[in-house]
Write a structure and sequence with these properties.
Two copies of one chain form a homodimer. By secondary structure, chain A is α+β, with helices and mostly antiparallel strands. Chain A contains 13 helices and 17 strands. Chain A starts with 17 loop residues before the first strand and ends in a 20-residue tail after the last helix.
Amino acid sequence: MSESRVEVRSLKDHVGREVTVAGWCYNARPQKRFKFLELRDGTGTVQCVFGAETSLNNSFERFEEEITQESSLYVTGIVTKHPKHDDVFELDARDFRMEGRSENYPIQPKEHGVDFLFSQRHLYLRSSRPHAILRVRHRVVKAIRDYFDSHGFTLLDSPILTANAGEGTSTLFATEYFDLGQAYLAQTGQLYGEAGCMAFGKVYTFGPTFRAEKSATRRHLTEFWMVEPEVAFMDLEGNMSLAEDFICYIVECVLTDCRPELERLERDISKLEAVKKPFPRITYSDAVEVLAQKGQPIPWGEDFGAPHETAVSADYDRPLIITKYPEAVKAFYMKRDADDPRVVLAMDVIAPEGYGEIIGGSQREENIDVLVHRIEHEKLPMEAFEWYLDLRRYGSVPHSGFGMGLERMVAWMCGTQHIRETIPFPRTIDRLRP
Amino acid sequence: MSESRVEVRSLKDHVGREVTVAGWCYNARPQKRFKFLELRDGTGTVQCVFGAETSLNNSFERFEEEITQESSLYVTGIVTKHPKHDDVFELDARDFRMEGRSENYPIQPKEHGVDFLFSQRHLYLRSSRPHAILRVRHRVVKAIRDYFDSHGFTLLDSPILTANAGEGTSTLFATEYFDLGQAYLAQTGQLYGEAGCMAFGKVYTFGPTFRAEKSATRRHLTEFWMVEPEVAFMDLEGNMSLAEDFICYIVECVLTDCRPELERLERDISKLEAVKKPFPRITYSDAVEVLAQKGQPIPWGEDFGAPHETAVSADYDRPLIITKYPEAVKAFYMKRDADDPRVVLAMDVIAPEGYGEIIGGSQREENIDVLVHRIEHEKLPMEAFEWYLDLRRYGSVPHSGFGMGLERMVAWMCGTQHIRETIPFPRTIDRLRP
């Protein structure tokens, strides 16, 4: 057999030549005069056509017996251009050689229950829908990193294992840490990002974060990735502009490079094309009024739930930025609004189409007295925050940042209802395998 | 004061113009007629010169009283080019405005103990040595991702929380996982990468990994980042070529973009410039002979320690690839050598200059019978590996991959002796804060 192995994605450069493709049988349809094999190799799928007259070494005869679903094999043939479709190439197959046989592959071309598919996630990744979603995830991650790397940010990997119980231990995973007592898995890298921005000006953390919450909703994972930029000498206004520009860049990258994936996922691409700057901006107080008008009243001071976010953002075709939330519903480190001490300089970015909050951020409190007061008020352990307070003792500056949940962003891009589809091996309250 | 704020790194574009720089006092040297302030903003450091005649608003007089080490402030002045040095720009300062005062900054311009500096890591990041090392880290991470992204790899984020105790629980961090019992923090993403390469052809995982080893050496962290490519239809030979090409690319990126950092770290740049393909390759058995000749004999079958690696690699000015280790010293999933069943198709890449192993990898065992036998032989829990065995049941293919420890790579690039310097917030057996 020919030794010039090529990937499916590169077939277009080999039209008319004999090549070998190595991959797995995605589907096989033997007919009387031609036998069709859809061969996937991870970079794409190619139709290999075995003809009764043209195939060698009895490959036409061996076809049904040997080529089962997800068997691995090498197919040799001549690359041809599809007569009707541009950008579609086929293999006028001559021969095949088996590598690894597959018998009774668990995932059949029929409807399976979601729970079954995720119990087979190690195999389910080969199916076209997970494949497309995770390719979009790949592109989103690259867009995130490219954006910050090209805008003067320094990557600051924050630790997963932390001594800070921080905002209470009830939603933290804990582990014994040698002779130092309990360590907790980080829920955020933000406090470390704040230290970083005083050293590097602009930083971002990007890594897995953990929530031991007993929430079993379609928007919760116990382990998920979060990117968190933090910028010195930046106020809430700058923070909003950064979030806006950042989101638009990601959407643009996905639209440019992931058309085939979005089409396979039947995503309404026009909805993503509408995502342009500027984003509408309203305050929490405005949003409360809008909710009252829409017949979903909520008392001023209470936090919004997913249905409120959906209702408020329903009028917009692009993300909505809601600012200035009541102090009580936001974290202790957010800066109070000088014009209205009831609210803090927070911002949430709500994706359109009901995909909910994708970004939460704020300007941070840089005044040590206010911050100490807030820590005391929330009955947090002051000692755990001494190093964090140092950032206000030694050259405190105005600074801001936000966190974006990667999986929520990917879910919005792909139009998937359940966030577990957006991560290779999801961890939820009832799933820890494979 | 002028509102046209610029970053230090951009001063070269503003020569002759009045600008404002926001930053922190790195050093202040008041003299009789001129007062000198080194202002750092994370993107660089600029010398601001206040003249008795030219400064406004009593800034010359206020200088000593107000500007203390690490105070944050805004300095306005005219950008000038250094009379002697190209690429050096100064600020002919007119005025300054304080933002946050700093009193008794803990890190003084004198020698501090390492333990003290790492207890102040949140502030120590501002010093020039950590700053330079973490900028190199940033560049290495970008090089790693760019390399794989541009070579057809799909990023596959593997889970941190796993049910697999895998190779024994003694070096694992454990946590309670709801009603599902213990979860363990991943030591590697490799098994997941293997599942991924059957779906995407080429994948890489890149994230934090954990070792609860009670090792307190200069080469161990309990939490560190590892990148692990895994490629379907690739053998040991391809794996070596990939590792070689990958390392050369990273070194090239660092040499191109991190000269100032390497110079600040007093790195011998010529040592890095020598790192070119091809790398020397020897077998474990050859290495045992070399060690005997060098008067450091080791019985065939025992694993190399750091001193052995240093001795064997001492003759080379570039990384050394050692292959085909005895089965007993390597992991169960490595493929046996068909020509010599005592050894497996493993490879370690040893950095020059005594920086030790930076890559460990292998061709993987694709035969399910051999793999089952190895799992039984090592008394590992078969049930935990059922999903992994599925990868051999359903279209098994030859495949290979490796893991590179990010911090070891950065330590080699920077020429640092202790790995804790290469990560923002190191976690070691006796350090969990800040």
